[in-house]
């Protein structure tokens, strides 16, 4: 039986693509071990998917103590490789993948990398020269890669949850009982919410109440929900305001327009579903959301606003959702960015299938 070690963690943006590939490998009878942090969200998420998991103690290297924790984690990772004898190691970024990728490099174990964002993260930037291949979500990443190394990269898109490839947008509208000509506006700042987006929607709520043909799905985030719900009057029974939607991907499929942040997986989901959007990237250079948003903006598939201009973004969204012709053009432009199933593309590209 073939063996693979997958390593990443910390945030859903790293973990979900890794889980998608892990499940795909398991379907092909590959024995998969997932290495992540023993204290971050993957510690609970991965075992729930019935995937073998082993946690290591690893922290961002911002102190002497953290550096020695890294050295210890690399030593433990080397021991895991010698014990497991994997055919391949696949890293999905974040500092949590650094020990195992370093161990793969030191033990001369074949390893691959996957980058979810438009710009390479620290671990991937450090090791792409030595990887068998680095799988990219977006073609734009090539702009930062020296020409002599570009043959070591392949654009596959981001691995997404399997169900997204089978979603039918018309069926999702029918399941929400959307009427003919009714517009669906999805507003979300992620599971934690986004204060600037929420404030902007509140500022425009009176105007939104006057729009008789727009149905709103607004995910406020858990920490903001109670205060927001106390401040507004629901316009009609069809408007749905919740801390978070468990069926967010289904609502996105049914939506005519999405107002949201610009995380890597969000951008990939918008592309897969061909959804026009108004993007308000989180304004941290480290997160890299602005660079992600530019991918859609340059194709004229999205409008991008700074976090400080969230009010203007929401006003623009109210006007845009009523412009059927503009929405149609945006959908067509987004279509050119779509890739085939990224999970299958990545798995098929691994050398482990060779006899």
Describe the structure.
It is a single chain. With 355 residues, the protein is of the alpha/beta class. It folds into two domains: 3-157 and 340-353, Glycogen Phosphorylase B (Rossmann fold), CATH 3.40.50; 163-335, Rossmann fold (3-Layer(aba) Sandwich), CATH 3.40.50.2000. The chain is built from 15 helices and 13 strands. It has helices at residues 12-27, 42-48, 64-84, 98-106, 122-127, 169-175, 195-203, 205-210, 225-231, 248-254, 264-273, 289-298, 310-320, 324-335, 342-349; strands at residues 3-7, 31-37, 52-56, 88-91, 111-115, 134-136, 153-155, 183-188, 214-219, 240-242, 257-260, 277-279, 302-304. The strands form two sheets. The chain has a seven-stranded parallel β-sheet with strand order 3-2-1-4-5-6-7, with helices on both faces. A six-stranded parallel β-sheet has the order 10-9-8-11-12-13, sandwiched between helices. Strand 5, helix 5 and strand 6 form a beta-alpha-beta unit. Helix 1 packs across helix 15 and helix 7 packs across helix 13 (310-320). It is elongated and about 65 Å long.
């Amino acid at each position: 039986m073939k063996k693979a070690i997958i390593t990443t963690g910390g945030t859903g943006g790293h973990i979900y693509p890794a889980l998608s590939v892990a499940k795909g490998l398991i379907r092909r009878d590959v024995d998969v071990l997932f290495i992540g942090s023993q204290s971050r969200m993957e510690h609970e998420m991965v075992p729930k998917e019935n995937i073998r998991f082993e946690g290591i103690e690893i922290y961002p290297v911002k102190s002497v103590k953290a550096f020695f924790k890294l050295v210890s984690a690399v030593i433990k990772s080397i021991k895991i490789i010698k014990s497991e004898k994997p055919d391949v190691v696949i890293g999905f970024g974040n500092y949590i993948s650094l020990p195992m990728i370093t161990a793969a490099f030191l033990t001369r174990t074949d390893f691959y990398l996957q980058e979810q964002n438009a710009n390479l993260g620290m671990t991937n930037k450090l090791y792409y020269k030595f990887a068998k291949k680095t799988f990219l979500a977006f073609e734009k990443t090539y702009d930062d890669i020296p020409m002599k190394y570009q043959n070591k990269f392949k654009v596959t898109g981001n691995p997404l949850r399997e169900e997204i490839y089978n979603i039918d947008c018309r069926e999702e509208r029918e399941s929400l009982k959307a009427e003919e000509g009714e517009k669906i506006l999805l507003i979300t700042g992620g599971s934690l919410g986004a204060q600037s987006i929420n404030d902007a929607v509140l500022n425009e709520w009176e105007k939104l109440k006057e729009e008789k043909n727009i149905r709103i799905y607004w995910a406020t985030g858990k920490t903001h929900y109670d205060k927001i719900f106390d401040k507004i009057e629901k316009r009609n029974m069809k408007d749905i305001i919740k801390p978070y939607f468990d069926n967010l991907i289904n609502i996105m499929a049914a939506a005519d327009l999405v107002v949201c942040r610009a995380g890597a997986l969000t951008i990939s989901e918008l592309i897969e579903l061909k959804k026009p959007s108004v993007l308000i990237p989180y304004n941290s250079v480290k997160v890299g959301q602005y660079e992600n948003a530019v991918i859609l903006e340059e194709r004229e598939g999205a409008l991008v606003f700074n976090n400080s201009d969230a009010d203007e973004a929401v006003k623009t969204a109210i006007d845009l959702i009523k412009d059927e012709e503009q929405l149609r053009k945006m959908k067509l432009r987004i279509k050119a960015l779509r890739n085939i199933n990224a999970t299958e593309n990545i798995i098929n590209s691994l050398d482990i299938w060779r006899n």
